[in-house]
Specification:
The chain is α/β, with parallel strands linked by helices. The chain contains 13 helices and 12 strands.
């Protein structure tokens, strides 16, 4: 079993207000990097580590020849504009945007000049962030997670572990700007494999409770949880509700399976953060976002929690076990 490594300490100030302007960029000759995330510091520690590894590949080390300032929204999208303003006041060489397309939207609205490196959940061309994947053209580039391609894979895996189902539930966060595109992607993916989808919405803990109550009342046999900053932060609660209500669920992140969820299929998120670290370093050294193509992940992982499967009374087919990249016992 692969263990998740977490740093013991992260230099971060958490809060919903703009941070005091003790500006690194104005008090040091080191270039600054602004790191804006819709997620939280604690549950993103391993991702920050991966980002730092990407910087290090190009010779940049936080505290030595570059400084990183963090802005965390803690899954509250309304906090992002203030955090973005606080980071940009420090005149960073590049602004990192992670935790969903809402973060990228806020970043682009906040600056048309500071280079931005983002992790996109949806298609950044369709979302209007870049002109094309190969030539972004503006002040933003990054990594696209190809969700439209892998939703069919996730739904297929749900059907494989729950044979005979004709309907699945799909959870959406109505506050996310990607909810509409996620709905479209999931609907198209379900059609390709002959499944019906019932959508449920939740943007906070009480609504998660209500969603699972609806799942039970409507006898929805399985659940798809797509990528979203709130769902990532609420992964422990989601795993607990799925277990309590006997609902097999598939997630986008390995972290959800470590928290007790049944299974996940998606890109290797730490590697994605490593990639944006490499792009951030290249920009600090003079590259322009317009000339850096939007990357697409090449590393995907299927993770299964054997204990969760047993608790749900599932017998995982040999064909499924043969393609598992990691089993959490």
């Amino acid at each position: 079993m692969r263990q998740m490594r977490r740093r013991a300490f992260i230099k971060v100030i958490v809060g919903s207000a703009v941070w005091p302007l003790a500006v690194h960029a104005q008090t040091s000759n080191k270039p600054a990097i602004g790191f804006l995330s819709a997620r939280s510091a604690k549950e993103s520690a391993h991702l920050v580590d991966a980002f730092r590894r990407g910087l290090a590949e190009h010779g940049l080390v936080d505290g030595q020849n570059v400084t990183i300032d963090f802005g965390w929204a803690d899954s509250h999208y309304e906090r992002l504009p203030a955090q973005a303003s606080g980071l940009l006041a420090r005149q960073p060489a590049v602004l990192i945007s992670v935790g969903g397309d809402m973060t990228a939207k806020v970043a682009v609205a906040a600056t048309h000049t500071t280079p931005i490196v983002a992790v996109f959940i949806g298609d950044p061309v369709v979302g209007g962030f870049v002109s094309s994947l190969s030539r972004p053209g503006g002040n933003i580039t990054g990594v696209s997670n190809l969700n439209a391609v892998i939703e069919a894979k996730r739904l297929g895996l749900l059907r494989d572990v729950k044979p005979g189902i004709t309907t699945v539930g799909a959870l959406l966060n109505p506050d996310s700007i990607t909810a509409a595109s996620q709905r479209k992607d999931i609907e198209e993916a379900a059609r390709t494999i002959g499944l019906n989808v019932q959508f449920l919405e939740a943007k906070n803990d009480p609504e998660l409770d209500a969603a699972f109550k609806s799942i039970v009342e409507n006898r929805i046999p399985a659940l798809l949880v797509p990528a979203d900053a709130f769902f990532a932060a609420a992964r422990d609660r989601l795993a607990g509700l799925a277990a309590l209500n006997g609902v097999p669920a598939i997630y986008s992140l390995r972290e959800s399976v470590v928290s007790g969820g049944l299974m996940s299929y998606g890109n290797d998120l730490p590697d994605t953060y490593r990639l944006i670290g490499t792009y951030a370093a290249r920009i600090v050294k003079g590259a322009k976002p317009a000339d850096l193509p939007v990357l697409q992940p090449t590393k995907f992982e299927f993770v299964l929690n054997r204990k969760a499967a047993k608790a749900l009374g599932l017998s995982i087919p040999a064909a499924v076990l043969s393609i598992v990249d990691e089993v959490i016992e």
